[in-house]
Amino acid sequence: MTPTQFIHTHKEHWQQLESLLLKTEQRRLRALTRTELKRLGQLYRILTTDLAYAQTNFPHSDLLLTLNQLASRTHPYVYRGQSFTFTGVLQFFRNDLPQTFRANVHYFVLSATIFLVAAALGAIAVLFNEEAAGIIISPTLIDYIHRHEMWTEHFFSVIPSSVASTRIFTNNISVAFSAFALGLTFGVGTFCVIVVNGLMLGCILMLCARYSMLGPLLEFITAHGVVEISTILIAGGAGLMVGTALLSPGDHTRRDALAVRGADAVKLVLGVAPILVVIGLVEGFISPQPAIPAGLKMALGLFLGALLYLHLFLSGRKSSTTNRVS
């Protein structure tokens, strides 16, 4: 690629960055909306990639000097020092997380669709051939179901609820981060994580139904299940974002597309981690308690699920259009 071709291909991004930079230099960062501030960071990452390419391929050109100057002007605004504050964390969960979720909701829908199809296939497989459950479910768990016993009762009888909760949310966070990180395999690893979890749920539900264990299972999972599965699917959607950035970068290079979509994906994963901690506490302290009525557990699960989705779909709407960065 010649310098002229390179400029023609990439100049639109540089012009956008120059426009935002002029606005920032004249009126400081408070002049930018949240969307513009986010775009400033994305364009800077794209610029640094272009600068590295120019340094390698056009080391003595005027273009290299121009890009260097643009990067030097932008760097202080992108990497200005910011203190970690409670207000900043609150702002992230109140506005940034739901706005990012809504902007990328189609990835969540794709993740949920893959999961539900896999769950249906798992249930159908066990319906027609019970031995199919052994492919995806451990023999120990199957033995519990055959004996009409809930495997969770043994688990919580030997492990204190506090320790169990820690193990539960640690495992769930591990699954969520794995689903996200495996997006780097062009989405194949993320797809597998979602499918395996869907198959497991479908197989367990159908196997429990065959042995009259569906009631006890639902009583255990209703308090935490909606939020737990939803948050893992959000992380799965984040992994699919990374995978599609590599598979279909559009007008960007794969590296640029990964930088742009990866920033949103990281926000989603970091956002669901604390939710998994909270729901792990529910699963450890509330779900296994026989003294708590099944109806109350179901009501709690529906309430928490509704609270999560209302927040994701409604919060931060006013801020996204009217607020300014201060």
Describe the structure.
This protein has 326 residues and is mostly helical. Helices cover 81% and strands 0% of the residues. It is built from 14 helices and no strands. Helix 11 packs antiparallel against helix 12. The longest helix is centred in the last third of the chain and has 34 residues, at 214-247. The protein is elongated and about 75 Å long. The model is unreliable at 319-326 (pLDDT under 50).
Number of helices: 14
Main sheet record: none
| Rg | 24 Å
Strand content: under 5%
Give the SSE layout.
Blueprint: H1 3-27, H2 34-57, H3 62-78, H4 86-103, H5 105-128, H6 133-136, H7 139-146, H8 151-158, H9 161-181, H10 188-210, H11 214-247, H12 254-285, H13 294-314, H14 317-322
Helix pairs in contact: 1-2, 1-3, 2-3, 2-12, 4-12, 4-13, 5-10, 5-11, 9-10, 9-11, 9-12, 10-11, 11-12, 11-13
Name its key features:
mainly alpha, 81% helix, 0% strand, 326 residues
Task: Write a compact overview of the structure shown.
By secondary structure, the protein is mainly alpha-helical. The protein is built from 14 helices and no strands.
